[in-house]
Specification:
single chain, alpha+beta, FAD/NAD(P)-binding domain, 9-stranded mixed beta sheet, 3-stranded mixed beta sheet, 26% helix, elongated, disordered C terminus, binds flavin-adenine dinucleotide
Length: 397
């Protein structure tokens, strides 16, 4: 997503010829993690531990509002989200509400209201409080569709390639790289890598090794239950250490603390470990107090960060330039979907202005990216409206 936005903005601001390459969803099932889970936009989710978290949350909430305004998207539809805050977390929660400027949008729920919103997961514990919060999931696919349309309006070429793009040193030009895409060889003046969890592997193809780029990938295991479970659209039970997203189309995406692995190989980590799957299923049954029924499946969500910069997520936002060996190569990590446009703007500002006029390319790799955009949890054979399921994407245990 950041990549498309960057392409559009770059094109508009600089008059460059811009080509965006991406793999289709079916062959890159963990791409665009944005569409796999929820979207915490208010900043509250990120403002729960320290003052540093709060600074990041404030930044994220401003960027998120700017992004929605710029794209003219109003996502405040549907049922709101709910948070259950343990009482020791209340002082920071109150401070966060104040600093994020969302006091009027957060409401303490009484017992009946809370029970109605979280259904089977309601707990009448005296040491925690339920709040209605402004965050809610939305059709992330709609947001991508707007970005795609805007990029096209600015004559950005958006292409889907069947094979993963590969990079190598250009033997004919020192300090330049060659991009191999579906049988075509390209020599761009500048290259922006916004390939999510596959960014480290692409850098390594250029000989930029881990000790230089210092990027690592973390994996969160998620469980998708293909029915409605919670009346609220988002539930974050910080006392019970689990979160769930409930989509309009009857998909519940459930995750919990402890089903996360740091520094994984994204290809190997696509398979959710058996112990994570069991833990998720057991916890879900405890939370809802009934055996899991009907179809459910497991999927991995990959997130990328700089090694040594442990969570929280704010230290994952970065735009970097390759060392002297490749001056035209940048990589960008928005760190969170809400910061995608901010990351795109930063990277655009770093790119060199064109030194010569570029005509339209005579041939483009792959095919024009027109495919419908589906939510990740919809992309399964149990969903008649979504595209067909992709091999390896899910496991039924
Ligand atoms: C479980 C989970 C929950 C999250 N929750 C939130 C949240 O609530 N709020 C929030 O703001 N953010 C959230 N995030 C973070 C957010 O999803 C990411 O920050 C965002 O998706 C990253 O965007 P990106 O464009 O950098 O990468 P991606 O979205 O991963 O996109 C990368 C693109 O590059 C393409 N690609 C990769 N390799 C190649 C190749 N070799 N050739 C061609 N194309 C390639 C892929 O096909 C894909 O289209 C969450 C992430 C996870 C995992």
């Amino acid at each position: 997503m950041a990549l498309e936005a960057a392409g559009g903005a770059w094109s508009r601001a600089r008059g460059n010829e811009v080509l965006v390459l991406r793999q289709p969803d079916a062959s890159a099932p963990h791409a665009e993690a944005l569409r796999g889970h929820a979207w915490w936009q208010s900043g509250l989710h990120y403002a729960r531990r320290t003052d540093a978290d709060l600074d990041f949350a404030a930044q994220l909430s401003v960027m998120s509002r700017l992004m929605l305004d710029r794209l003219q998207l109003d996502l405040r539809k549907g049922p709101p989200g709910v948070m259950r805050i343990p009482h020791q977390g209340l002082p920071l929660f109150s401070l966060a509400i104040q600093q994020l400027g969302i006091r009027s949008q957060v409401r303490k729920l009484n017992q009946d209201e809370a029970r109605n919103m979280v259904g089977p997961a309601y707990r009448s514990a005296p040491d925690s409080t339920y709040f209605e919060v402004p965050d809610r999931p939305f059709a992330e696919a709609d947001l991508l569709a707007v970005l795609r349309m805007q990029a096209r309006t600015h004559d950005v070429h958006l292409q889907e390639v069947m094979q993963p793009v590969r990079l190598s040193a250009d033997p004919e030009a020192p300090c330049r790289c060659r991009v191999e895409a579906d049988g075509l060889s390209l020599r761009p003046d500048a290259l922006v890598l916004a390939a999510g969890c596959r960014t480290p592997a692409l850098l390594e193809q250029l000989g930029i090794q881990r000790q230089t780029h210092q990027l690592v990938v973390d994996r969160t295991s998620l469980m998708v239950v293909t029915r409605s479970v919670f009346p609220a659209s988002l539930v974050a039970d910080y006392a019970g250490r689990w979160t769930a997203t409930q989509s309009e189309r009857g998909r519940c995406v459930f995750t919990m603390s402890g089903v996360r692995d740091e520094d994984v190989d994204p290809e190997a980590a696509q398979q959710v470990p058996g112990e994570h799957a069991r833990a998720l299923r057991d916890r879900f049954e405890q939370v809802t107090r009934c055996p899991i029924e009907g179809s459910h499946r497991f999927m991995s969500g990959m997130e990328i960060r700089k090694a040594g910069a442990s969570a929280p997520s704010h230290v994952r936002f970065l735009v970097e330039r390759a060392p002297r060996s490749y001056p035209g190569v940048h990589w960008v990590l928005p760190g969170s979907a809400s910061l995608a446009l901010a990351a795109a703007q930063l990277v655009v500002a770093e790119l060199p202005r064109p030194t010569r006029a570029h005509g339209s390319p005579s041939a483009l790799p792959g095919r024009s990216w027109q495919a419908p955009l589906a939510m990740m949890h919809s992309r399964h054979d149990d969903d008649a409206e979504g595209p067909a399921s992709s091999a390896g994407e899910e496991q039924r245990l």
